[in-house]
Amino acid sequence: IDLDGPNRGNWLTGNIMSLFEGGVDYCVHIAEKYGGAVRLYGPLGEIVYVSDPRALYHIVVKDQHIFEEPNQFIMSNKLVFGEGLISTIGEQHRRQRKLLNPVFSTSNMRRLLPTLHPISDRLTSILASKLPADGSHKEIDVLPWLSRCALDGVCQGILGYPSNTLSAAENDSYAEALRKIGPLIGKLMKVRSITAFVMQNCSPYWARKVLDLVTVPWLPTQYMADIREMRRIVETMDSASRKAFLERKAAMEAEETPDLIDTACRDNDSMTSMMDIMLKANAVSSNTERLTDAELLGQMNVMVFAGLDTTTSALARCIYLLAQHSGAQARLRSEIRDATKILEEDGDMPSAELPFDVLMSLPFLDSIVKETLRLYPSLPVMARATSKAITLPLQFPARSRSGGYTSAVAIPEGTVTIISILAANRHQGLWGADANEWHPERWLSSPLTAPSQAQEVKYSMDGEDTVSMSRSAPVMGVKDGVRFPGVYSNMMTFLGGSRSCIGFKFAEMELKQVIATLVLRLHFSLPTEPNTQGHVKEIQWKLQAFHIPVVKPPAGDGVTPQVPLNVRLVKKDDFIWNAVV
Ligand code: HEM
């Protein structure tokens, strides 16, 4: 591959792990140094690391069928989640998206918001109850509570399943399974290729038998234990979501109204869940487009999983940044107070239960969420594999192997391509010289163009595939008609194209609801209490599959800090890792 890049590194594993070891700085630095397409090495050879806007447009939109998710990703997802969106490709995936896209419409989000009100209230009350009655401050590890909140949010909002992990002393087995599944998938990453091979060549019955057999003789014991644990988790998850699904389906079939979508939503606005809406959309769809029960069930499993650690990571980052920037926190609080005061005066709403349209249009809250998701996307990099050879055009020339520059790169079939969401979101050419800084005000100084003056934003890729769109667009992230092909405010956080995040509106709404409720009543700051030796605890962020906050105990403190039960601890170097779950 005729691209420049860092040295190969380890002869066997290459330099791919540097992305995670070097963290955000490294991921951004290599794009700034070599350009929007960089050559890296993995165990199986060369890898292309991409952050160029035109190349990304080809990867996620125009040539998406050539840049599919790697086979082992699809196959192992199928084994764990069933027939949901992250386990299907091609025509089946297209059919699923066609039915599901309208389910995530703005009007359906409006219906779902009330399911999040009691959850964000409960989170706030729990944290407030831990504070001293005299109004003074106290150090609380908020991460596990944010995680429980995100879990209750997806369970209730998506599945209609009241997991109540915020209130319950003991978690139910379903909630427990959901919390464990992300880290286990990470641990089992190395055996994914075996899974893919077996799944493709055997029936489900034999796949199960073969996987049992082939893994026994040579896999380290820990893998075996993890595989057994994964199987237990999958069974728990499957039986709980199947039960919820069958109950809702039976209840829906008992309704004798032809216009199922409209009636149910009108009659029972606040009680609805994503599953209800999806079941109803499916019932009224044509026979050829209708999803099977297995596909519907798979969607539920996938959405609950996809919406959990991503949202927790984003919530944690927002709270962390607000704690770091007390001025922004104060400004946000007064914006929310003003909004709730107006409503109280109107006698409309109790405190933080802002109506959907008010919540979603608070300018500073919107800026905080956007800027945080831009600078710290929950999923910093995504992998694709080319199903055939292709030449990828670049918007901005990248450094070639010979030391010159190239504006197109030939990629052989079977090449792993890494989409760098992180580097794209920090592209200085499109986001400005301060692209690496958290600066929420940038979104305020970039008002929406009024619909009457809607600009024709020309997304000029090449002669043939020019995409033009007329819309009221924020000017942020666009320069000379060039922008990233993301579904959310020109950034790549939720990707773009047919495999973009289907739940991004739900995620945005949940983030805004939880942050508004928390900030209205609580003030957040970083740890300040020195231990007996005068050292203060540090919070740092580790880049794994997700961004994970890492708590470094105060220097010289040999005592392991007290941590809540649901936090998985891994001792590495001198850090205590608080996994997101
Ligand atoms: C801040 C929160 C979130 C972030 C940053 C995020 C990000 C992403 C990204 C980058 C992808 C593309 C993955 C890939 O191509 O491999 C994705 C896919 C997906 N997300 Fe999200 N997500 C978030 C929340 C949610 C929520 C709340 C839901 C469910 C309601 C959800 C459901 C999905 C699904 C089902 C897919 C697969 C789509 C497909 O393949 O067609 N996500 N998400």
From TrEMBL:
This is Cytochrome P450. Belongs to the cytochrome P450 family. InterPro entries: Cyt_P450, Cyt_P450_E_grp-I, Cyt_P450_sf, Cytochrome_P450_monoxygenase. The lineage of its organism: Eukaryota, Fungi, Dikarya, Basidiomycota, Agaricomycotina. Keywords: Heme, Iron, Membrane, Metal-binding, Monooxygenase, Oxidoreductase, Signal, Transmembrane, Transmembrane helix. GO terms for molecular function: heme binding; iron ion binding; monooxygenase activity; oxidoreductase activity, acting on paired donors, with incorporation or reduction of molecular oxygen. It comes from Suillus plorans. It is found in: Membrane. Its cofactor is heme. Heme binds at C501. One of its GO terms (cellular component) is membrane. Pathway: Secondary metabolite biosynthesis; terpenoid biosynthesis. The keyword Oxidoreductase applies.
